[in-house]
TrEMBL record:
A single BP term in Gene Ontology: cellular detoxification of fluoride
Protein name: Fluoride-specific ion channel FluC
Transmembrane segments: 33-55, 67-85, 97-121
Keyword Membrane attributed: yes
Source organism per UniProt: uncultured Thermomicrobiales bacterium
Origin organism lineage: Bacteria, Pseudomonadati, Thermomicrobiota, Thermomicrobia, Thermomicrobiales
Length: 124
């Protein structure tokens, strides 16, 4: 029951953080390219790489911390379902090159950010 509650709490906070950050970015730098989702995905990839590497190295398998942060918060914060919907929306709007650029750059930045998070956590 404790793990269930930790996941729920983390999920609520992660969903709120995603909504707030994506909205703030869209309000400031809005345009055709879904920059808010793009940056949330990249920062979420970095955070999960960093967090899971740091927790494993320093604390072993901390089920509570993993449930709260990785499964709950970051599971709700990272937005690949939104990413997919936005890509299909771009395709349906005839913006195929923008959609392709969005998919490729999201994947590359996500992989690079995850690797950077792992490297930084290992360096600490």
């Amino acid at each position: 029951m404790r793990t269930f509650l930790l996941i729920g709490l983390g999920g609520a906070l992660g969903a709120w953080a995603r909504w707030a950050l994506s909205g703030a970015i869209a309000a400031r730098w809005g345009g055709t390219f879904p920059l808010g989702t793009f940056l949330v995905n990249a920062s979420g990839c970095f955070a999960i790489g960093f967090f899971l590497t740091l927790v494993a190295a320093r604390f072993g398998d901390s089920t509570g911390a993993r449930a709260l942060v990785a499964t709950g918060f970051l599971g709700a914060y990272t937005t690949f379902s939104t990413f997919s919907f936005e890509t299909v929306t771009l395709l349906r709007a005839g913006a195929g090159l923008t959609a392709l650029g969005y998919v490729i750059s999201s994947l590359l930045l996500g992989l690079a950010a995850t690797a950077a998070g792992i490297l930084l956590a290992r360096a600490l």
